[in-house]
Amino acid sequence: MLQRLFIQNYAIIEEIEIEFTKGLVVITGETGAGKSILMGALGLILGERAETGVLVNKEKKLIVEGAFDCTNNKWVASFLKEQELEETDILLVRREISPQGKSRAFVNDSPVNLSQLQELSAQLVDLHQQFDTLSLGQTSFQREVLDALAHQLGKVEEYKLIYNEWVQAKAELADLLSKQSRAEAEAAYIQFQYQELEEASFRENEIEELEQEVKLLSNAESVQQFLARTTDTLSLGEDPLVSRLKTLLNEWNSFSSFHADFPALAERLRAAYVELQELSRDIERVADQVQLDPQRLEVVNARLSLGYKLYKKHQVNTTAGLLTIQSNLATQLSGIEQGGQSIQAKQKLVEELEEKAISLAALLSKGRKKQVSFLESKLQQLLHRVGMPAAQLKVNLLPGSLGAEGVDQIEFLFDANRSGQFSPLRKVASGGELSRLMLCIKSLVAESMQLPTLIFDEIDTGIAGEAARQVGLLLKELAQHRQVVCITHQPQIAGKANAHFFVYKQAKENSIATHIKRLSKNERINAIAQMLSGEQPTPAAIATATEMVEE
Questions:
Q1: What is the pTM assigned to this prediction?
Q2: How confident is the model over 219-273, as pLDDT tens digits?
Q3: What's the rounded Cα separation, in Å, for the pair 176 and 334?
Q4: How far is CA 495 from the centre of its chain?
């Protein structure tokens, strides 16, 4: 509910503040007094475009601020939380325009951008002005009207959840199929690379060991000669070192008692003798292993050649690098196989969600179809009440493909004069007709839809007498559980108000400014009487006005 509206420095408004009430609020005043200017200012906090030309004082900024009671409004609470804005029951929405043209918007004193403001304000105020087709011509609103009448708005939300899951699952499936297609295109080459490495069957560090072996095999003859010379020097020659050490060790044993250090030195010499004996035997063993083997050399060179070829192909330089490549290729091949399983699972999920969505959409469609004749006949009755006896609304409901709101293609068609020629509502209805049609529709669905504050600007264009009275009655009924604000020239409508505001101009020095005040009961009667018979109302007009106010 709109509790308060503050406007400063807008058009011919220097500064006004309006405290609104619940129920039906009417605003009256002479033509040109500034009623529509109020709506223009309100439009700024609803996210409409601002221009510096509306500033009264070019040296001061323009400010429009609205205070809204959003107690128990779950959508607003969710929006504030999602946007990380202060959560309060009384919501302050402010728009400021500087003399330089800079526009700023605030929600609870926190800055917001224009798209955030528009999204929020759409849930706070429904401003319907003449020639403003807005939601009435939109398929989403028309669908919501039928769903509200069918009491299936909850089912629509359930359907949307399933539908969104289905859309997401389809997108994920398409992504999986794309990836799998690319993987399968590369699978043959991946398989070839893996098989090549698997057939090579290199073990850990094998190439490095083969490099050592080929070096030995290539120099086997010189290595044998070197080892032979070494063993001759140590133990097999004419005067081997081991024999000489043994002789020397025997002499040390003869002198071991001549000095305290001799026994220890002798022991160290014995250890050297034993080590040389073992060393000689090990060298002989190694010498026996070193053989000139051209066939083995050929085998090793071939194995190394394969290894070096694979090194170059995979851009690595170790056996470990090749083994890592082989493991990665195996993982890719396994992934391709598992990808097929993932696709099957995702396809099954898509099919299940689509089946659920189709089933729910069919239920929604059934509920909508049941309301078509009711809506058409009920609206015809209401349109007759509000001065449009020849007007007819036809609901065109056709099957379509699965979409965000079901499978139905919905369009409201309108015939203002019983011509039998129905055309899309947005193309043929006039501003006044649209306003009254919107009033009729919203009065039908008011109990089923969470409607924000409804503002009708000159809904009474082209009507008078009983039709105006019926419009007033509809507005009164609509305002029983929500706030309705109506700018009107009709006394029959003004008489139904819970609160009546009067807009007037007042001269001030060299300027004229718009003001507004809430009328007392007697002031209301006088204002309505003036609307009936002129500036000097007759006793009959005053009596009629009194009856209207007290009705």
A1: 0.64
A2: 666 766 776 777 767 767 676 777 778 878 787 777 777 777 777 887 887 888 7
A3: 15
A4: 47
